[in-house]
Amino acid sequence: MRLKMFYATNRRHQGTNRWKPDEYGTEFSSDGMENLRFGQVSLQADSNTINTHLKRKKANQSDAGDGEKLADYLAKCSRDACTIKAYREKINRSISDTHQPNAKFGSDSMFDDLRKAMLNQSDVLIYIHGFNVDWHQAVGAALALQLMLNRSAFNDGREILVVLFTWPSDGKALPFVSYKSDRTEAKGSGYAFGRGLLKLRDFLTELKTDYAKTDNPLCDQELHLLCHSMGSYVLQNTLARMRDFSNGKNLPRLFSHIFLCAPDVDDDVLDKDKAMSDLHELTRSITIYHNKGDLAMYVSDYSKGHPDRLGHEGAARPAQLHRKAHQVDCSLLVSGLVEHSYHLWGPVNSDIRYSIDGIAHEDSNTRQRLRHANFNNVWELV
After folding, report:
1. What confidence tens digit (pLDDT) does each residue in 120-136 have?
2. Residue 78, phi then psi, degrees to nearest 5
3. Which residues have CB under 8 Å from 211's CB, separation 6+?
């Protein structure tokens, strides 16, 4: 089985050809930390092995799917052999993008290919990974997420295309060293991702203008965003960059759903006047998944002296969350099985897919949720 995926990255390419690199490394792009390269990556994987992981159940889980094992397998396939093709660009780096009428941007080429895919009834979900993730692990996790979300039981005729944004995470199992390094790189990468979203905003604006003039078709599909672990900190810094370069007082609404999975940010970050208080402006819906037994949150809390994490026990003041935001406690369901990457595990992954498919939070016929007695936006997976 040949698997293919779109990507954007501010990692430095490895190899002599930047348009067909061997892989991407752990440093920022040679053109600067905010430089983004866009492209496609493909690899060969065994369909029987993939199906085995998609059908595997842990303990007494109701929904099959071991996306963690699948991600590990696909990362190995990527290391064995993957084909990377970056979209070619013709840009003068010393001049602002808006002052280059003859420039060729890789972002435009990829956005146009994504538009064609969406016209064929595909939603797009952008995925930002967390810390300690190298290029191949990022590819494996993103492809596993795509395969998990497209399990036949939840497809309903629509495909989900996952677009990977991968930043220069160290990919080393040294939590007391690489965590600090990754946090610094995540901040700079947030600025890079912000540039990418602003490019997307401009592309969508041009599409609407073109539609008004020519009646070229617009698709009815949707864009979504999923941030895992420190990927939420990338997003936190993305908002800061977008505020600096957005017209008007509000951020553009680009997404239908934003999922913060095991978010490694402060538990009050969504409160009024805090760093992500305006996240709701980017989207129609926000869902926060957290786990009290997440060991990665303890690394952040105790070894780095950070305040309590959003991914540990949820929002500090859930009653103050914007009406678009809901939080889901996964602790009972994932305890002892999947502590940190539970967005790739059957039951939680299915809950994410239900949101994409427009199934209401309170739909007890489909969702395995209990609502908190005192809060309309606080849920528990059971």
Report:
1. 778 899 999 998 899 99
2. -65, -40
3. 217, 218
Q: Exposure of 189 by Cβ count < 10 A (0-12 exposed, 13-18 middle, 19+ buried)? A: buried
Report the distance separating Cα 35 and Cα 128, nearest Å: 16
Cβ proximity of 163 and 6 under 8 Å: yes
Task: Give the DSSP letter of residue 251.
Answer: -
Residue ranges of E strands in 142-299: 159-166, 223-228, 255-261, 283-290
The count of other CB atoms within 10 Å of the CB of residue 51 is: 13
| 343 has a pLDDT exceeding 60 | yes
Which one-letter amino acid corresponds to residue 369? R
- How many beta carbons lie within 10 A of that of residue 373, not counting itself? 6
CB 157 within 8 A of CB 121: yes
pTM of the model: 0.91
Nearest 10 degrees: Cα torsion 257, 352, 162, 2: -160
Distance CA 298, CA 252 (A): 34
